[in-house]
Amino acid sequence: MPGNSFGNLFRITTWGESHGLALGVIIDGCPSGIDISEDDIQHELDRRRPGQSKITTQRKEPDRIEILSGIFDGKTLGTPISLMIKNADVISKSYEDIKDTYRPGHADYTYEKKYGIRDYRGGGRSSARETVGRVAAASIAKKILSFDGIKTTGYVKQVGDIVADNIDLDQIEKNLVRCPDSKKAEEMIEQIEKVRREGDSIGGIVEVVSRGVPPGLGSPVFNKIEADLAGALMSIGGIRGFEVGMGFETARRMGSEVNDMMYKDDSGNLRFRTNNAGGLQGGITNGEDLLVRIAIKPTSSIPKIQKTVDKHGKQKDLVVKGRHDPCLCPRAVPIAEAMVNLVLVDHLLMSKVSRI
Amino acid sequence: MPGNSFGNLFRITTWGESHGLALGVIIDGCPSGIDISEDDIQHELDRRRPGQSKITTQRKEPDRIEILSGIFDGKTLGTPISLMIKNADVISKSYEDIKDTYRPGHADYTYEKKYGIRDYRGGGRSSARETVGRVAAASIAKKILSFDGIKTTGYVKQVGDIVADNIDLDQIEKNLVRCPDSKKAEEMIEQIEKVRREGDSIGGIVEVVSRGVPPGLGSPVFNKIEADLAGALMSIGGIRGFEVGMGFETARRMGSEVNDMMYKDDSGNLRFRTNNAGGLQGGITNGEDLLVRIAIKPTSSIPKIQKTVDKHGKQKDLVVKGRHDPCLCPRAVPIAEAMVNLVLVDHLLMSKVSRI
Amino acid sequence: MPGNSFGNLFRITTWGESHGLALGVIIDGCPSGIDISEDDIQHELDRRRPGQSKITTQRKEPDRIEILSGIFDGKTLGTPISLMIKNADVISKSYEDIKDTYRPGHADYTYEKKYGIRDYRGGGRSSARETVGRVAAASIAKKILSFDGIKTTGYVKQVGDIVADNIDLDQIEKNLVRCPDSKKAEEMIEQIEKVRREGDSIGGIVEVVSRGVPPGLGSPVFNKIEADLAGALMSIGGIRGFEVGMGFETARRMGSEVNDMMYKDDSGNLRFRTNNAGGLQGGITNGEDLLVRIAIKPTSSIPKIQKTVDKHGKQKDLVVKGRHDPCLCPRAVPIAEAMVNLVLVDHLLMSKVSRI
Amino acid sequence: MPGNSFGNLFRITTWGESHGLALGVIIDGCPSGIDISEDDIQHELDRRRPGQSKITTQRKEPDRIEILSGIFDGKTLGTPISLMIKNADVISKSYEDIKDTYRPGHADYTYEKKYGIRDYRGGGRSSARETVGRVAAASIAKKILSFDGIKTTGYVKQVGDIVADNIDLDQIEKNLVRCPDSKKAEEMIEQIEKVRREGDSIGGIVEVVSRGVPPGLGSPVFNKIEADLAGALMSIGGIRGFEVGMGFETARRMGSEVNDMMYKDDSGNLRFRTNNAGGLQGGITNGEDLLVRIAIKPTSSIPKIQKTVDKHGKQKDLVVKGRHDPCLCPRAVPIAEAMVNLVLVDHLLMSKVSRI
To answer: How many H-runs (helices) and E-runs (strands) does chain D carry?
Structure first.
């Protein structure tokens, strides 16, 4: 409950501040006997790494994973897996002038009210760098899920007013913005560069689909799969909304339009003709694709002059320095996938004890 | 972790099936010394009770609360508070014919896949009746929050395409649909009656605002206040989306439009000129109104003929009998308030141990 | 964490005060599909029931179990099982005169210091009646364990200075004191009657053995099986010590005397020649009998005049009225078994997710 | 629940294998604003460090603490505190020959049964080296407790048949065996050297006293303070028994001998004339010294030839190499203190939310 752990049976605890010596994660509850190499983990870290392209922050972090425990001779031991990523490109100096000033859109003021103290360098614990541990841990979850044929894929669905129509998962990693619609990807990149030139930032939507999820994962009351997914995804910084399946659109519709009808397919499986529910009913998966979306606000750190106050309430004109993504969406993709995988692996393990 | 408990320091566990003998809740962690009467609890139960009006289900449940433990001489003891509500108007017979048939939009199939068994009468544990325990427990949370001046109010913001504009909290309980805009309330009621006549149902949006929340409540990583609220609200049956503050609209905006600017007000307090963030930054409250919204799907149970299958995969035309709300929104209001209050009370208690 | 729940995957939450309307328990996490009848549960309750014999309290409580949820058509649903036992023979009057006086050996003073309020009738929540919920819940754990061939048996090993030598499990339920040595049982009963006549009470030791426990149950660090057993058994009121296997005797011994040597038996199984470790190594079971003991203090409530103070610190001579067991051991047997079974069922379920 | 975390509000998670790269701990829930230096932590680590004297293992580990997160400008931030201790003197070679052989008294066989894999070097996760993280974390708990005037002191009460009589806490750190009775300390050291020369090891008892504990800490049912202490202390490797206050001796006594009588002292405080209960009633502290004892088995690793089997069941004569303490007691003292402090800090924080 202190707030830095996630999951129950596959339980992770992240630690680290943006400009401290290192960040990391402990995974407790990973089953023994799984083949894991540093490469498996590094691959996912590289996807969320800063400095990947012209549309992301220029902070250069190699984000090299170090496995400190829990893996022996290439296999998980069943004991806690400790993963660490050292910080390299730390320029704390650029944060000295905001030591006593609250950046708009940031957690500076709220940390101060909660803790009475904060590590102001790069946002400290509130930095998106915290997610490096989540992604590292989830790379192992991803492997476990793959044994059951479950595969989660995220992509940028929307940037500003530009919405992807043509969903081709093969296109995602072929463009800088991780959009499955190659034509819209170009527009999105153009739009992101435009707002960056203007000293501004822009929001967007990331969609995540999990395929191969068997029916029967989840829990009917407080840990409905959609509740756990919502909590998981809303715990990423800068997320302002979550929806599953038809989402907010259902508010405008009638039951006869929204209910998904069942049928028996040619292989004799029970299926649904539509997937308005996004792959679940009553908190439990139904065998269709699990489909969720999150609304991501525009990056708070913008070079434009903004009006704010310092800790004494003195009015200030602030220009936020440091190196920031003009649009959080592309790098949010692997983080969102990570959170979905962490939820799924927990429910997958839990499903092994739900029946006698 | 088995899924029927919520909260950490103020922890509730609900139990009961729709057509069983009773439903109830245990509250563990309620501080001692709080004056609680049955009336305090009954008042909230009456707000979520079925059979309140022409636009809600006609199931007549008195929903009388019984306090079985934890309260002595009108005060909380600090020991578990056990609350029970007996079922009265149970017509199990109407469910016999769906014993082996999966109702569209319901959890019948998914329960079967998870547990291999289900109580088919009224949906069993998946029924909205489960929330009676949540509301009962939250009535005590509400009282604790009131000592700190925190007050949570929910209302119907939207039904189908009808959106409330004029938010006047005093209007909410004056109309059947719990809409703060009295003019729109009439339109909403009309719309609900129309879909009912058509044998259909309709979705909507409920908005919840918490006033008087001090800055500094929440937690910066996995238990961000918006993450806990999302998990809490998405755990109510039939919710398809969650947003905070400007929500999904932020996806379309630029940082300079979304960031809330700080200033010192006349009383010397630090405040925000806008509240696009919905009362929080980095997972922690900022002293502004906490503002969240949920998208509620149209009721799954509709009298219209729907195509489905039975457990053997045989195609069936189904007419769902039983008594159902054509729009879940009005009765979702006290349930949504309850979940918000349960999250807030937990973080309020937690805030007492976050600093030395 | 608020303290009234036990277990993780098979999680129970007990509620109720000694002289309230009822007591009960919720079991969350019980797998679905298990045949359970009221008789299964009642049988265990009858074993811990007060008023069984001349050497136990004369309070007459039928302790009739009521199943309120979670079981349908005789099978567990996978949803929370709510069990309730109504209080019948409640004589609150006998407690009026100790409303403001602290009984020696009781929790009256400590509750007052913790909560500032207490239900003084029969000790309220601190009464041994609280364990009725534990025993009810554990009767289901016992059934689950039986499917894996695990059977837990408790007995009175010692009363005062009288120690059972001849351990014959078949004798246990044949004498009032639940001693496996029929000769020593008589001596124990005589001793208990003697102290009762003197207005006093006496302590003892209960031993619990679990047979058929497979190797590999447990967890190597904080949830070592002996740690969980110790926590479980020490959570029963009036327990002053816990030991496993050779226990405190190991303090006097050398490694060459204590280490259990392994061999391969005729069936090809790896076994241990001795069982000084009590069935475990490094927190994990080794396939030998799991063997633990608890030291039970003499009942605090004795009719003898004792010196104490009231809440104002005024010196008082107190004669504790009410009806009490002169020796807690016989009725502690089913409670100790219950706690052992609750620990084992949790680790048994957990073992299903510890390997890929 | 996966087993490597301890505590609720002040929650630690340890990680690391004996012969891996490093070991460590995350503390989640440490309040912000506490002054902590590396020296505070190092001081406690030095007390449990191997290679301290002729009666402990000769493995030389500097056990230098590294603070990786959660502390900024010498103060706790309220965010997770990550502490790491690198392994230095790792001689894995000496373990190669026991790769497939089960050492008597060790967890080799049980790990194999649970996980199907183990890090056989130095016992891997089952090594006492795991406790380095507990001691590091508890040094911060100790500081928090000191603000409330709570001080915990452990010492060796018994080695073999030699029992300390004369308890003088000032003597503890003045002798190699950490015995508060300087005369008995000499006998104990002699005894330990004797068994070492014989290629054997010896058991003992460690006693821990906490002074200044206010009345009202604890919880009445499953998290009784004695239950949490028992679970905490029994989670240290090689512990075979736990008792509080008069402990197992109460089994032989009558209620009139065991009940502690209350009185009002000269300062007007309610006190107890004796402390047979060891500082608690009904799971809650009563203001007297909290007094517990643990029975520690003789070290399993002894140079004497022992009979065992390998993983194929083949009989083997084994001489355990490696460097081991002939008596675990002296180095168990800081570990036992650590576990007691971890329990106390959790209940101290919890006490801040138990009343309105």
So the answer is: 7, 18
CB contacts, 8 Å: B69 with chain C: 15-17, 20-23
Q: Answer yes or no: are the C-beta atoms of A194 and A326 closer than 8 Å.
A: no
- d(CA B187, CA B163) in angstroms, rounded, equals 10
**Tokens encoding B193:** 């009656």
For residues A164 and A157, the answer to whether their CB atoms sit within 8 Å is: yes
| CB–CB contact D14 A80 (8 Å) | yes
What is the number of residues in chain A? 356
Q: Which fold has domain A5-351?
A: Chorismate synthase, AroC fold (3.60.150)
Separate counts of helices (H) and strands (E) for chain C = 7, 18
Distance to chain B for D84, nearest Cα, Å: 22
Question: What span, in angstroms and rounded, lies between the C-alpha atoms of B69 and A95?
Answer: 54
Q: Please check whether residue D240 is in contact with residue C247, taking contact to mean a CB–CB distance below 8 angstroms.
A: yes
Which one of B80, B118, B124 has the shortest CB-CB distance to C4?
B80
Residue B202 phi, psi dihedral angles, 5° rounding:
-145, 150
Closest by Cβ to C77, choosing from B23, B82, B125 = B125
How many CB pairs below 8 A link B and C? 156
Q: Is A56 left (phi over 0), alpha (psi -120 to 50) or beta?
A: beta
SS3 content of chain D, % helix, strand, coil (to 5): 35, 25, 40
The structural domains of chain B, with segments of one domain joined by +, span 5-351
Residues D298 and D200: their CA atoms lie apart, in Å, by: 9
Cα(C72)–Cα(C63) distance, integer angstroms: 22
Give the H or E element holding residue B261. Answer: none
| Subunits close to C (at least 3 CB pairs below 8 A) | A, B, D
CB contact under 8 A, C72 and B124: yes
pLDDT (tens, 9 = 90+) of chain A, 356 residues, equals 789 999 999 999 999 999 999 999 999 999 999 999 999 999 999 998 877 777 777 667 789 999 999 999 999 999 999 999 999 876 666 677 788 999 999 999 999 999 999 999 988 999 999 999 999 999 999 999 999 999 999 999 999 999 999 999 999 999 999 999 999 999 999 999 999 999 999 999 999 999 999 999 999 999 999 999 999 999 999 999 999 999 999 999 999 999 999 999 999 999 999 999 999 999 999 999 999 999 999 999 998 899 999 999 999 999 887 668 899 999 999 999 999 999 999 999 999 999 98
| Cβ atoms of residues A227 and A285 within 8 Å | no
The residue of chain D with its CA nearest to that of A82 is: D15
**Contact yes or no for A261 and B115 at CB 8 A:** no
Asked if the Cβ–Cβ distance from D352 to B353 is below 8 Å, we say yes
Q: Count of CB contacts below 8 A, A vs B?
A: 392
Residues D213-224: b if buried by 16+ CB within 10 A, e if exposed? bebbbbbbbbbb
Which of A36, A79, A84 is most worth mutating to test chain D (most D CB atoms within 10 A of its CB)?
A79
Going along D80-196, which residue ranges are E strands?
81-86, 151-159, 162-163
Here the tokens at position C29 are 């996490």
Most A CBs within 10 Å: which of C9, C82, C353, as the mutation test of the A interface? C353
D259's torsion region: left (phi>0), alpha (psi -120 to 50) or beta?
A: beta
Q: What 3-state class would DSSP assign to D339?
A: helix
User: SS3 for D272?
Assistant: strand
Inter-chain contact B353–D354, Cβ cutoff 8 Å? no
Q: Nearest residue on chain B to D356, judged by CA atoms? A: B31
- Quick check: D32 and B352 CB within 8 A? no
Closest by CA to D280, choosing from D327, D325, D229, is: D229
Report d(CA C44, CA C132) in Å as an integer. Answer: 9
